[in-house]
User: What shape does this take?
Amino acid sequence: MSEVRAAASAVTLALAGALLVGCGGADAEPEALPAGVEVSLVQQRSDVAARQAQVRVRNDGDTPVTLGAVEVADPRFDGVAVRVVDRTTTLAPGRGVDIRVQLPPVDCAGQDAATTTVAMEIEVGDTAYRAESDISDTLGFLLELYARECLADALAEVATVSIAGFTPAPTGQAGGLTLSIEPTGAGTARLEAVDSTPLLMYVAGAPPAPLPLGIDIGPGASATTVEIPLVPQRCDPHVVQEDKRGTIFTVDAVVGDVRGEIDIPAPPEMKARMLTWVAEWCGFGG
Assistant: This one.
């Protein structure tokens, strides 16, 4: 694990410990969720780039329930996910809420499949306590996230792959994306293709499709760059205004004998330039 990820994990653990110690003391045994309260874990498109998820809580009991600190634990993570906004939420009977949590770094020495649990500060009437429960990943996103990020970690041992440049072009012409590959000299990998995004594709006038790369990386490989053509996939102002993953490029990769996908995001400044270019290329830019 990198020093940055280790530091992030330490901060996450410290915050979680501070948040949940207050309910009955550090040694208090957790209790079950109140009758009628159900929980599940989901990840919306808007959560993906920030590596967040949401604890969905539904109160079908007869009594209002107040929720304080929330943490989600899973052995596939190096630390626990904690509530993004430090606040309390009161759920009347029949109401529900999605509580956003920040996911910690993955622990690639962990398990591919595991039990996920949630712990919450609960207040019912005058009684406050800590409740714990298993929580289901209803969309199955955790397994995919774990596989994708661990493959990215493995690729980083072989090479640094990043978006290094972007060149806009006039309307009707293809812009250019520069993919940088800097081998470390250790291990082998192959970059097979880059998938189109919800915003961008690679061939004008054709259906969106992966662009073959066919790049092999090994101990003797030299640093290189690859120029990738870009054209807008859709000229829809809402697509740009509501963009979530339009400048995150998914690469089909093989590292060692493991095949999967990794996400390579454009840096923030470059993302802004790409969105501006799409608007101008499509004719609705300011």
